[in-house]
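Data card: per-record layout.
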Amino acid sequence: MFNENTAPEVAIIGSGFGFREVLPAILSVGDFKVHLMKPRDYSESKYRDLNHPNVTFDSLDEIANRPSIKIVFISAPPFLQYKYFEYLVQFGKSIYLEKPGGLNSSEALRIERLNSKYQSNLYLGFQFRFDPAIQMSAEFVNKFSKPDRKTAKIEWNIKKSLTQMGWKQDLEKGGGVYRDHLCHAVDLLRNSFGFSDDTFRSTHQSISWKNDLINHLSLKSSNVEIDINRDYDLESSLLIEIKSGEERVLIKTEFPFKLGNYSVKHNSKPIDLPNTIALDFDARRFALTSYIRQIMMEEYGEDTNGSKSKFPSIEDAIFTQQMADCINLI
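The structure for this 330-residue chain is written out next.
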């Protein structure tokens, strides 16, 4: 789609998800030159796996002051997202900001104000919307005969090792992986499955602990139930059930989250993904790549069959962060 003579240069900040997932997604979309912000522990030997003719390591200042870098992907942990956004937005960059969009709703609101001031193109990293199983399921849900009577249940079981260290457990750093998953769940219900904001106005939140670590997070209203669990002996799994009267859509998958591992049913009848989709693809990377491809087309002036309004926005981040603030308050 792009080539080295026409495609904009891009940068990635965040050596975890950014290097592991965002970098290969970008390189699969086009022949971009990618600038990676040099980690504090950088050495050529440690990061030799990232050797690529189109990849270089640069400082944050070099990225900010390089006019040819059009888009910066901020894939840092939540407690660092506002810091990087505040610095980079004043340089006229388009910015992809990983969910949840700051440490809490207060930072998300500050990001919104800064973005309004500098008029940057800002894309929020709710990439699960672009999962083909989610999108196909949403088509069936949005045809329910009584859409205003929908109920939903989301159960996310997270592998223990993903939550035991660093920011992924630390409440002062944004509630970690629990906040991420809760924000994803709320965003899917609102923007993929059509639940109104009023659905979340009266919610009950609870957190339970085990061995000084969070092991369960719950958010419930009269017609929505979200449960995120760490105390789980098997691998990670995800269940989404949307019901309205006799109509029902059920999505189930377990680790590894390959598209072929999904079970998607409408009223007990399987929903098959298009045969053009390789079922051995990792669902998260497939969704992320689809999203990034659309961002690049939008930025580069290609036809995306719509406007930027279809992309996850800072308003989405603010709403989901408000729901997730319970993690820091309890």
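Known properties of this structure: Residues 176-192 form the longest helix (17 residues). The longest strand covers residues 213-220.

See the next section for split statistics.
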